[in-house]
Amino acid sequence: MYNHGGWFGEPENQLEIMKRLPQYDIGIIYNFHHAHEQLDKYQSIIKQILPFLWCVNLNGMKKEGPKIITIGQGTLEKRMIEILLKMGYTAPFGILGHVKDEDVAFTLQKNLIGLQSLFSDNNPKKSFPPYK
Asked: Do the Cβ atoms of 26 and 1 come closer than 8 Å?
């Protein structure tokens, strides 16, 4: 399931759906860019959905928005990633090309550079290996 806003996009509702359909192998794809309304309870949400988390799509994150920004240009994404890793998240990370006026290869490159900058040796708050 994909947290794409509205009732269905709320992780608590997705968990309830999965509880009612135990015969199916259902997981959650969690998108940072659809999590702005969940930031105050992010750590609690991750704790609940972690066993069902198949992928997390990264994005730069600022509480006040905008919804889509390059990784490394936000103020929250590094801490959000660190929380995931500290809680034991081992599934894949994804990066979406949600920019309409830019080549998706360039968007991906900017995001990979931004991700690496968050956790590089040049960053004194390093806690994640650089992207290779």
From this structure: yes
